[in-house]
Protein backbone atom coordinates (compact mmCIF):
# COMPACT_ATOMS: atom_id res chain seq x y z
CA UNK A 1 0.00 0.00 0.00
CA UNK A 2 1.28 3.46 -0.86
CA UNK A 3 2.02 5.46 2.27
CA UNK A 4 4.05 8.48 1.17
CA UNK A 5 4.54 10.57 -2.00
CA UNK A 6 7.31 13.19 -2.08
CA UNK A 7 8.78 15.45 -4.75
CA UNK A 8 12.27 16.95 -5.01
CA UNK A 9 13.28 19.81 -7.31
CA UNK A 10 16.98 19.46 -8.07
CA UNK A 11 19.60 21.24 -10.17
CA UNK A 12 19.91 21.81 -13.03
CA UNK A 13 16.15 21.68 -13.84
CA UNK A 14 14.75 18.31 -12.77
CA UNK A 15 11.95 17.00 -10.56
CA UNK A 16 12.18 13.62 -8.83
CA UNK A 17 9.28 11.70 -7.28
CA UNK A 18 9.76 9.33 -4.31
CA UNK A 19 7.01 6.88 -3.38
CA UNK A 20 7.22 4.72 -0.27
CA UNK A 21 5.00 1.78 0.63
CA UNK A 22 3.63 0.91 4.09
CA UNK A 23 6.37 -1.74 4.45
CA UNK A 24 9.24 0.54 3.45
CA UNK A 25 9.81 -0.25 -0.25
CA UNK A 26 10.91 2.96 -2.00
CA UNK A 27 10.51 3.75 -5.70
CA UNK A 28 11.91 6.71 -7.61
CA UNK A 29 10.51 8.39 -10.71
CA UNK A 30 11.37 11.49 -12.70
CA UNK A 31 8.74 14.08 -13.60
CA UNK A 32 11.12 16.70 -15.01
CA UNK A 33 9.43 19.25 -17.27
CA UNK A 34 12.20 21.77 -17.76
CA UNK A 35 11.13 25.31 -16.86
CA UNK A 36 7.78 24.05 -15.50
CA UNK A 37 8.75 22.35 -12.25
CA UNK A 38 6.21 24.14 -10.02
CA UNK A 39 3.00 23.10 -11.84
CA UNK A 40 4.16 19.48 -12.22
CA UNK A 41 5.09 19.37 -8.56
CA UNK A 42 1.67 20.72 -7.61
CA UNK A 43 -0.07 18.08 -9.71
CA UNK A 44 1.97 15.22 -8.21
CA UNK A 45 0.99 16.56 -4.79
CA UNK A 46 -2.67 16.62 -5.86
CA UNK A 47 -2.38 13.04 -7.19
CA UNK A 48 -1.03 11.96 -3.79
CA UNK A 49 -4.65 12.04 -2.55
CA UNK A 50 -5.49 9.31 -5.09
CA UNK A 51 -2.31 7.36 -4.44
CA UNK A 52 -2.01 7.20 -0.67
CA UNK A 53 -3.72 4.07 0.58
CA UNK A 54 -3.84 2.53 -2.92
CA UNK A 55 -2.34 -0.84 -3.88
CA UNK A 56 1.00 0.08 -5.51
CA UNK A 57 0.97 -3.05 -7.70
CA UNK A 58 -2.05 -1.74 -9.67
CA UNK A 59 0.14 0.36 -11.98
CA UNK A 60 -2.28 0.29 -14.93
CA UNK A 61 -5.25 1.27 -12.79
CA UNK A 62 -3.34 4.10 -11.11
CA UNK A 63 -2.19 5.30 -14.56
CA UNK A 64 -5.81 5.40 -15.70
CA UNK A 65 -7.16 7.10 -12.60
CA UNK A 66 -4.46 9.80 -12.62
CA UNK A 67 -4.87 10.51 -16.35
CA UNK A 68 -8.66 10.13 -16.60
CA UNK A 69 -10.42 10.69 -13.27
CA UNK A 70 -9.83 14.46 -13.29
CA UNK A 71 -12.04 14.69 -16.41
CA UNK A 72 -9.58 17.10 -18.11
CA UNK A 73 -6.67 15.27 -19.72
CA UNK A 74 -3.52 15.47 -21.76
CA UNK A 75 -0.69 17.97 -22.04
CA UNK A 76 2.87 18.18 -20.75
CA UNK A 77 2.13 18.93 -17.08
CA UNK A 78 -0.15 15.92 -16.65
CA UNK A 79 2.07 13.72 -18.84
CA UNK A 80 5.11 14.53 -16.69
CA UNK A 81 3.38 14.20 -13.31
CA UNK A 82 1.98 10.81 -14.32
CA UNK A 83 5.37 9.78 -15.73
CA UNK A 84 7.14 10.41 -12.44
CA UNK A 85 4.55 8.41 -10.51
CA UNK A 86 4.50 5.59 -13.07
CA UNK A 87 8.29 5.16 -13.05
CA UNK A 88 8.32 5.06 -9.25
CA UNK A 89 5.62 2.37 -9.24
CA UNK A 90 7.57 0.24 -11.76
CA UNK A 91 10.69 0.73 -9.62
CA UNK A 92 8.77 -0.56 -6.59
CA UNK A 93 7.33 -3.48 -8.60
CA UNK A 94 10.81 -4.61 -9.62
CA UNK A 95 12.31 -4.17 -6.16
CA UNK A 96 9.42 -6.09 -4.63
CA UNK A 97 10.24 -9.23 -6.68
CA UNK A 98 13.99 -8.64 -7.07
CA UNK A 99 13.87 -8.20 -10.86
CA UNK A 100 14.86 -5.35 -13.18
CA UNK A 101 11.93 -3.60 -14.86
CA UNK A 102 12.91 -4.90 -18.31
CA UNK A 103 12.23 -8.44 -17.05
CA UNK A 104 8.74 -7.37 -16.02
CA UNK A 105 8.24 -5.96 -19.54
CA UNK A 106 8.92 -9.32 -21.19
CA UNK A 107 12.66 -9.68 -20.72
CA UNK A 108 15.72 -8.45 -22.53
CA UNK A 109 15.86 -8.32 -26.32
CA UNK A 110 19.39 -6.86 -26.32
CA UNK A 111 22.50 -6.88 -24.16
CA UNK A 112 23.54 -3.25 -24.54
CA UNK A 113 22.06 0.00 -25.78
CA UNK A 114 23.77 2.33 -28.19
CA UNK A 115 23.83 5.93 -26.92
CA UNK A 116 24.65 9.25 -28.47
CA UNK A 117 26.03 12.51 -27.14
CA UNK A 118 25.11 16.10 -27.86
CA UNK A 119 27.65 18.39 -29.45
CA UNK A 120 27.67 22.10 -30.07
CA UNK A 121 25.02 23.50 -27.76
CA UNK A 122 21.98 25.61 -28.63
CA UNK A 123 23.84 27.73 -31.15
CA UNK A 124 26.25 25.19 -32.60
CA UNK A 125 29.85 26.16 -33.14
CA UNK A 126 33.13 24.26 -33.05
CA UNK A 127 31.11 21.12 -33.75
CA UNK A 128 33.89 19.28 -35.57
CA UNK A 129 36.20 19.51 -32.53
CA UNK A 130 33.38 18.40 -30.24
CA UNK A 131 32.55 15.47 -32.54
CA UNK A 132 36.20 14.44 -32.57
CA UNK A 133 36.26 14.42 -28.76
CA UNK A 134 33.15 12.21 -28.65
CA UNK A 135 34.65 9.75 -31.14
CA UNK A 136 37.86 9.67 -29.05
CA UNK A 137 35.67 8.81 -26.04
CA UNK A 138 34.28 5.82 -27.93
CA UNK A 139 30.92 7.23 -29.08
CA UNK A 140 29.58 6.02 -32.42
CA UNK A 141 26.93 8.73 -32.87
CA UNK A 142 26.45 12.40 -32.07
CA UNK A 143 23.60 14.87 -32.34
CA UNK A 144 23.78 18.59 -33.03
CA UNK A 145 21.39 21.47 -33.41
CA UNK A 146 21.28 22.63 -37.03
CA UNK A 147 21.32 26.30 -36.09
CA UNK A 148 20.25 28.89 -33.57
CA UNK A 149 17.06 30.82 -34.44
CA UNK A 150 15.94 30.29 -38.03
CA UNK A 151 14.18 32.73 -40.31
CA UNK A 152 10.75 31.61 -41.51
CA UNK A 153 12.18 31.62 -45.03
CA UNK A 154 15.92 31.13 -44.51
CA UNK A 155 18.41 32.87 -46.76
CA UNK A 156 20.79 30.85 -48.93
CA UNK A 157 23.51 31.78 -46.49
CA UNK A 158 21.58 30.38 -43.48
CA UNK A 159 21.02 27.07 -45.23
CA UNK A 160 24.60 26.98 -46.46
CA UNK A 161 25.96 27.56 -42.94
CA UNK A 162 23.89 24.65 -41.64
CA UNK A 163 25.27 22.48 -44.43
CA UNK A 164 28.84 23.55 -43.65
CA UNK A 165 28.53 22.68 -39.96
CA UNK A 166 27.00 19.27 -40.59
CA UNK A 167 29.56 18.61 -43.36
CA UNK A 168 32.39 19.45 -40.95
CA UNK A 169 31.08 16.84 -38.52
CA UNK A 170 30.61 14.26 -41.28
CA UNK A 171 34.23 14.79 -42.39
CA UNK A 172 35.38 14.33 -38.79
CA UNK A 173 33.40 11.20 -37.89
CA UNK A 174 33.57 9.48 -41.28
CA UNK A 175 30.98 7.22 -42.88
CA UNK A 176 31.01 4.53 -40.18
CA UNK A 177 29.55 6.77 -37.49
CA UNK A 178 26.28 8.62 -37.28
CA UNK A 179 25.16 12.18 -36.94
CA UNK A 180 21.65 13.30 -36.10
CA UNK A 181 20.53 16.87 -36.79
CA UNK A 182 17.97 18.55 -34.51
CA UNK A 183 15.96 21.44 -35.93
CA UNK A 184 14.39 21.85 -32.44
CA UNK A 185 11.06 22.93 -33.90
CA UNK A 186 12.73 26.15 -35.08
CA UNK A 187 11.90 25.74 -38.77
CA UNK A 188 8.77 26.38 -40.76
CA UNK A 189 7.79 23.58 -43.14
CA UNK A 190 9.31 25.63 -46.00
CA UNK A 191 12.60 26.05 -44.14
CA UNK A 192 12.65 22.38 -43.13
CA UNK A 193 12.22 21.37 -46.77
CA UNK A 194 15.16 23.49 -47.87
CA UNK A 195 17.41 22.30 -45.05
CA UNK A 196 16.55 18.63 -45.63
CA UNK A 197 17.33 18.98 -49.33
CA UNK A 198 20.70 20.53 -48.52
CA UNK A 199 21.60 17.84 -45.96
CA UNK A 200 20.60 14.75 -47.96
CA UNK A 201 24.08 14.27 -49.43
CA UNK A 202 25.50 14.13 -45.88
CA UNK A 203 23.22 11.21 -44.90
CA UNK A 204 22.23 12.19 -41.36
CA UNK A 205 20.81 9.33 -39.25
CA UNK A 206 17.68 11.46 -38.85
CA UNK A 207 16.39 15.03 -38.83
CA UNK A 208 14.69 15.77 -35.53
CA UNK A 209 11.65 17.96 -34.84
CA UNK A 210 11.74 19.67 -38.25
CA UNK A 211 8.68 21.71 -37.31
CA UNK A 212 7.10 22.73 -34.04
CA UNK A 213 4.45 20.37 -32.61
CA UNK A 214 1.45 22.42 -33.77
CA UNK A 215 2.58 22.02 -37.37
CA UNK A 216 3.22 18.29 -37.25
CA UNK A 217 0.24 17.60 -39.47
CA UNK A 218 2.47 19.05 -42.23
CA UNK A 219 5.17 16.41 -41.77
CA UNK A 220 3.61 14.23 -44.45
CA UNK A 221 4.35 17.02 -46.94
CA UNK A 222 8.08 16.98 -46.18
CA UNK A 223 9.82 15.29 -49.11
CA UNK A 224 13.21 13.90 -48.15
CA UNK A 225 15.13 10.64 -48.08
CA UNK A 226 16.38 11.47 -44.55
CA UNK A 227 14.36 9.73 -41.81
CA UNK A 228 12.27 12.18 -39.79
CA UNK A 229 12.28 11.93 -36.00
CA UNK A 230 9.98 13.69 -33.57
CA UNK A 231 8.15 13.31 -30.29
CA UNK A 232 9.79 15.08 -27.34
CA UNK A 233 6.76 17.40 -27.21
CA UNK A 234 4.10 14.73 -27.70
CA UNK A 235 2.58 13.36 -24.51
CA UNK A 236 0.54 10.25 -25.27
CA UNK A 237 0.06 7.51 -27.84
CA UNK A 238 -2.83 9.31 -29.52
CA UNK A 239 -0.54 12.24 -30.37
CA UNK A 240 2.05 9.81 -31.76
CA UNK A 241 -0.57 8.22 -34.02
CA UNK A 242 -0.77 11.49 -35.92
CA UNK A 243 2.95 11.72 -36.70
CA UNK A 244 3.24 8.03 -37.49
CA UNK A 245 0.51 8.27 -40.09
CA UNK A 246 2.46 11.28 -41.39
CA UNK A 247 5.42 9.00 -42.14
CA UNK A 248 7.79 9.70 -39.24
CA UNK A 249 10.52 7.03 -39.10
CA UNK A 250 11.77 7.54 -35.53
CA UNK A 251 9.58 8.41 -32.55
CA UNK A 252 11.15 10.13 -29.56
CA UNK A 253 8.81 9.93 -26.57
CA UNK A 254 10.28 11.36 -23.38
CA UNK A 255 9.92 8.92 -20.48
CA UNK A 256 9.47 11.89 -18.12
CA UNK A 257 6.87 13.72 -20.24
CA UNK A 258 4.81 11.05 -22.00
CA UNK A 259 3.17 9.14 -19.17
CA UNK A 260 6.20 7.13 -18.09
CA UNK A 261 7.14 3.52 -18.79
CA UNK A 262 3.51 2.39 -19.16
CA UNK A 263 2.65 4.82 -21.96
CA UNK A 264 6.02 4.68 -23.73
CA UNK A 265 5.84 0.89 -24.17
CA UNK A 266 2.42 1.46 -25.78
CA UNK A 267 3.93 4.19 -28.01
CA UNK A 268 6.76 1.80 -28.97
CA UNK A 269 4.26 -0.90 -29.91
CA UNK A 270 2.25 1.60 -31.93
CA UNK A 271 5.44 2.71 -33.75
CA UNK A 272 6.25 -0.93 -34.46
CA UNK A 273 2.93 -1.23 -36.33
CA UNK A 274 4.25 1.45 -38.69
CA UNK A 275 7.75 -0.02 -39.00
CA UNK A 276 9.10 2.97 -37.08
CA UNK A 277 11.91 2.94 -34.51
CA UNK A 278 12.00 4.40 -30.99
CA UNK A 279 14.77 6.69 -29.75
CA UNK A 280 13.56 8.09 -26.41
CA UNK A 281 14.28 11.74 -25.71
CA UNK A 282 16.36 12.20 -22.55
CA UNK A 283 18.44 15.30 -21.81
CA UNK A 284 17.26 14.72 -18.22
CA UNK A 285 18.37 13.12 -14.98
CA UNK A 286 19.44 9.63 -13.96
CA UNK A 287 15.97 8.27 -13.16
CA UNK A 288 14.52 9.23 -16.56
CA UNK A 289 17.60 7.74 -18.21
CA UNK A 290 17.28 4.50 -16.26
CA UNK A 291 13.61 4.28 -17.26
CA UNK A 292 14.57 4.83 -20.92
CA UNK A 293 17.16 2.07 -20.72
CA UNK A 294 14.78 -0.39 -19.03
CA UNK A 295 12.29 0.16 -21.87
CA UNK A 296 15.11 -0.08 -24.43
CA UNK A 297 16.39 -3.40 -23.07
CA UNK A 298 12.93 -4.91 -23.61
CA UNK A 299 11.84 -3.15 -26.82
CA UNK A 300 12.69 -4.68 -30.20
CA UNK A 301 12.32 -1.47 -32.21
CA UNK A 302 14.48 0.65 -29.89
CA UNK A 303 17.10 2.42 -32.05
CA UNK A 304 19.45 4.50 -29.91
CA UNK A 305 19.34 6.40 -26.60
CA UNK A 306 19.90 10.10 -25.97
CA UNK A 307 21.66 10.96 -22.69
CA UNK A 308 23.32 14.02 -21.17
CA UNK A 309 25.99 12.65 -18.86
CA UNK A 310 28.73 15.28 -18.58
CA UNK A 311 27.00 17.64 -21.02
CA UNK A 312 28.44 21.17 -21.10
CA UNK A 313 25.20 23.02 -20.27
CA UNK A 314 24.47 21.29 -16.96
CA UNK A 315 26.65 23.55 -14.87
CA UNK A 316 24.62 23.51 -11.64
CA UNK A 317 23.96 19.77 -11.38
CA UNK A 318 24.80 16.61 -13.29
CA UNK A 319 23.23 13.22 -14.04
CA UNK A 320 25.76 11.35 -11.91
CA UNK A 321 25.42 13.74 -8.92
CA UNK A 322 22.31 11.89 -7.75
CA UNK A 323 23.34 8.23 -8.01
CA UNK A 324 25.19 6.38 -5.26
CA UNK A 325 26.89 4.04 -7.75
CA UNK A 326 27.84 5.44 -11.14
CA UNK A 327 29.10 2.11 -12.51
CA UNK A 328 25.88 1.15 -14.38
CA UNK A 329 25.93 4.45 -16.28
CA UNK A 330 29.43 4.05 -17.73
CA UNK A 331 29.80 3.98 -21.51
CA UNK A 332 31.47 0.98 -23.08
CA UNK A 333 32.38 1.67 -26.73
CA UNK A 334 29.42 4.02 -27.13
CA UNK A 335 26.95 1.72 -25.37
CA UNK A 336 25.50 1.13 -21.91
CA UNK A 337 25.55 -2.53 -20.87
CA UNK A 338 22.37 -4.14 -19.55
CA UNK A 339 21.90 -4.23 -15.77
CA UNK A 340 20.22 -6.86 -13.64
CA UNK A 341 19.74 -4.83 -10.46
CA UNK A 342 16.08 -4.76 -9.35
CA UNK A 343 13.60 -2.04 -10.28
CA UNK A 344 14.98 0.75 -12.44
CA UNK A 345 18.38 -0.61 -11.45
CA UNK A 346 20.08 2.53 -10.17
CA UNK A 347 20.71 3.54 -6.59
CA UNK A 348 19.57 7.07 -5.86
CA UNK A 349 21.71 9.05 -3.41
CA UNK A 350 18.81 10.17 -1.25
CA UNK A 351 20.78 12.55 0.94
CA UNK A 352 22.19 14.28 -2.18
CA UNK A 353 18.64 14.62 -3.56
CA UNK A 354 17.23 16.02 -0.29
CA UNK A 355 20.10 18.47 -0.02
CA UNK A 356 19.74 19.57 -3.68
CA UNK A 357 16.03 20.27 -3.15
CA UNK A 358 16.94 22.91 -0.54
CA UNK A 359 18.62 25.16 -3.12
CA UNK A 360 17.36 24.15 -6.57
CA UNK A 361 17.81 26.93 -9.14
CA UNK A 362 14.71 28.22 -10.94
CA UNK A 363 15.65 27.26 -14.50
CA UNK A 364 13.87 29.39 -17.10
CA UNK A 365 13.48 28.40 -20.74
CA UNK A 366 15.51 30.81 -22.91
CA UNK A 367 13.51 33.49 -24.71
CA UNK A 368 14.91 34.12 -28.18
CA UNK A 369 14.06 36.88 -30.64
CA UNK A 370 14.76 37.43 -34.31
CA UNK A 371 16.83 40.41 -35.44
CA UNK A 372 13.62 42.44 -35.92
CA UNK A 373 12.60 41.89 -32.29
CA UNK A 374 9.90 39.30 -32.95
CA UNK A 375 9.60 36.04 -31.03
CA UNK A 376 11.81 33.20 -32.24
CA UNK A 377 11.49 29.50 -31.40
CA UNK A 378 14.23 28.35 -29.00
MG1 LIG B 1 15.23 17.63 -29.70
Can you put this structure into words, describing what you see?
The protein has about 375 residues and is an alpha/beta fold. The protein is built from 11 helices and 14 strands. It folds into 2 domains: about 100 residues, Enolase-like, domain 1, CATH 3.30.390.10; about 240 residues, Enolase-like C-terminal domain (TIM Barrel, Alpha-Beta Barrel), CATH 3.20.20. Strands 4, 5, 6, 7, 8, 9, 10, 11 and 12 form a 9-stranded mixed β-sheet that branches. Strand 8, helix 8 and strand 9 form a beta-alpha-beta unit. The longest helix is centred in the first third of the chain and has 22 residues. It starts with a strand and ends with a strand. The mean pLDDT is about 95.
Secondary structure topology:
Blueprint: E1 2-10, E2 14-21, E3 26-30, H1 37-51, H2 59-68, H3 76-97, H4 101-104, E4 112-119, H5 127-136, E5 141-145, H6 156-173, E6 178-182, H7 189-199, E7 207-208, E8 228-230, H8 237-245, E9 250-251, H9 260-273, E10 277-278, H10 286-298, E11 305-306, E12 335-337, H11 350-357, E13 368-369, E14 375-376
Parallel strand pairs: 4-5, 4-11, 5-6, 6-7, 7-8, 8-9, 9-10
Antiparallel strand pairs: 1-2, 2-3, 4-12, 13-14
The structure holds magnesium ion.
Tell me briefly what this model is.
By secondary structure, the protein is an alpha/beta fold. The chain has eleven helices and 14 strands. Helix 6 links the parallel strand 5 (about 140-145) and strand 6 (about 180).
Descriptive tags:
378 residues; alpha/beta; three-stranded antiparallel beta sheet; Enolase-like, domain 1; binds magnesium ion; TIM Barrel; single chain; 11 helices
